[in-house]
Amino acid sequence: MAGRIGAALFQIGGMMTLAGFVLLKWPNAFAWFGKLPGDIMTEHVIAPFASMLIVSAGLSALSWIFSALLRLIR
């Protein structure tokens, strides 16, 4: 159980480090967020559906990569 929690924390930390590096190196890297076709932006409603699908796919890919790295380390 502790190994699984440690692996999850490793993955989260790796993703946060990578996102922080990208934001420091390229501050306008996420200027597209909320402006894609499929994002609903009105005066009262903000629903970035398409942007969230892309973010979800990216985070899933990063999680898969970090879990593969963990398997190699063990």
The SSE string, one letter per element, is HEEH
Largest sheet, strands/sense/barrel: 2 strands, antiparallel
Adjacency order of strands in the biggest sheet: 1-2
Structure class: mainly alpha
The number of E-state strands comes to: 2
Determine the fraction of residues in helical runs and give it as a percent range.
55-70%
Low-pLDDT ranges = none
Query: What share of residues are in beta strands?
Result: 5-15%
End-to-end CA span: 16 Å
Shape: elongated
Question: With helices defined by DSSP (H or I, 4 residues minimum), what is the helix count?
Answer: 2
Gyration radius, rounded: 16 Å
Q: What's the number of structural domains? A: 1
Summed over residues and divided by their number, the pLDDT gives a mean of 86
